[in-house]
User: Fold this.
Amino acid sequence: MRSSASPIRQGLTDGLPFIAVVIPFGMLFGVVSAEAGLNMFEALSFSVVVIAGEAQFTALQLLTEHVPTFLVLTSALAVNLRMAMYSASLTPHVGPAPLWQRAIIAYFTIDQSYACAIAAYERNPHWTTQDKVRYFFGAVVMICPLWYVATAAGAWVGSGIPDGLALDFAVPITFIAMTGPMLRTGAHRAAALMSVVLSLTFAFLPYNLGLLVAGLGAMITGAQVELWLERRAGPTTPTPQEAK
Amino acid sequence: MTEISSTALWTVIIGLGLGSFALRFVFIGLIGDRQMPEWALRHLRYTAVAILPGLVAPLVVWPPATGGSFDLPRVLAGIVTLAVGYVTKNVLAAIVAGAATLYALLYLLG
Assistant:
């Protein structure tokens, strides 16, 4: 999908499918907040300040169970640990941007914006740092405000989207659809496979720690397979990274 | 169920907000322009394919919507989405194919 559209337009386009994810889940968070006794302002503040769906649901659930505040924070932050990996992964691409831009990117780093951005950066190795920043902003300009609006709407209306629409599956489908085109090399495929195996094996671990085990294990797998493929190909052949 | 205290709620909102921002900012903000070692870059190239499949695999195999029990329409929809995305390299085509599979099977089997 190499396109001549400007980075910001590509970002906007790539962000669009996530509307089907963000609206139902934002509304659901609003509804669950209202049920837990939060008013609309509190629910909205939660989504604006934290801007991480899964961690928000975890924190709210533990708050309603009157778990000590320190444990609520620790558990919800554990759920969000993968954000640090996203941060590291984005650094080679947008590291040279001004600090204020990097701060905004950090705030808007969620699963969806990260997945869009890293796929686009690999598709467009010729992009400048500013192109990459513009793409990122294009991708989040639709998704993130909708997350706030949907949260407020859910808290206000008090009901979400009917189950019959099976929108619970919007998250898996959008992420799987993005993963398909990312499986460019044997190293990528091996990493993805290891991720699936480890995340299912370690699903019993609390606080999403199974995902962390899967992520680290799969990154090591990808790196090792890349090295092995390089050695096998011999020194004159380009590395998978250069062969894009 | 007693109400959540206002203090606890706002401590969690602000603390989680700051903590989440710190996690997101730690590398992008602090390393910035500095060159990272080759071994680190070699691992970071695989972050997306290491995290995203692990994020969705349990949701496909044990969907929360069915109370965690295996659901044929969801598993097949996941497989179709992956196959179309892999072959066509077109994210939108994969989403449409996956959603169509899911709705068709839910309708036929439901």
User: Anything to note?
Assistant: Helices of chain B lie at 6-30, 38-44, 47-61, 72-88, 91-109.
